[in-house]
Amino acid sequence: MSRQANRGTESKKMSSELFTLTYGALVTQLCKDYENDEDVNKQLDKMGFNIGVRLIEDFLARSNVGRCHDFRETADVIAKKEKYFWENKIKRQPKLYDAVKERGAASRTDASPLLP
User: Fold this and answer.
1) Which is more confidently placed, 27 or 1?
2) Per-residue model confidence (pLDDT) at position 39
3) The 3-state secondary structure of 50-91, one letter per residue
4) What sign does the dihedral 32-33-35-41 (CA atoms) show?
5) H or E element, residue 6
């Protein structure tokens, strides 16, 4: 029984480590492919936007949400999903949560386009 509990913790830890390594490799490759930081930021922003669109489309396709009649209703549904994602995915991975929190604090002091 305790082995099964440990496996869950290990897989979560491996998932965050895999994410960190993969993201680091991606950014490193983009830095090699593009000469200036502005182009790297544009590519990362474009990739983030596309991933966000796919996540929302997937959520709307899998959920039992009815057809939204206006933009405000659609935004409310998406905001609820974002809150759920933040509370259940990001906060459970301390390294990722700290990195996101740190980037958010930096966004208040610098004008980088990738920071919220």
Assistant:
1) 27
2) 92
3) HHHHHHHHHHHHHCCCCCCCCHHHHHHHHHHHHHHHHHHHHC
4) negative
5) helix 2-33
User: 65 — alpha (psi -120 to 50), left (phi > 0) or beta?
Assistant: beta
Domain residue limits, the chain: 2-107
CB 107, CB 115: distance < 8 Å:
yes
Could you tell me if 95 and 18 are in contact, meaning their C-beta atoms sit under 8 angstroms apart? no
Question: pLDDT tens across 9-37, in order?
Answer: 555 566 778 888 888 899 999 999 998 99
Sequence-distant (≥ 6) Cβ neighbours of residue 10 within 8 angstroms: none
- Please tell me whether the overall predicted TM-score, pTM, comes out greater than 0.90 for this model: no
| Calpha distance 100→92 (Å, rounded) | 12
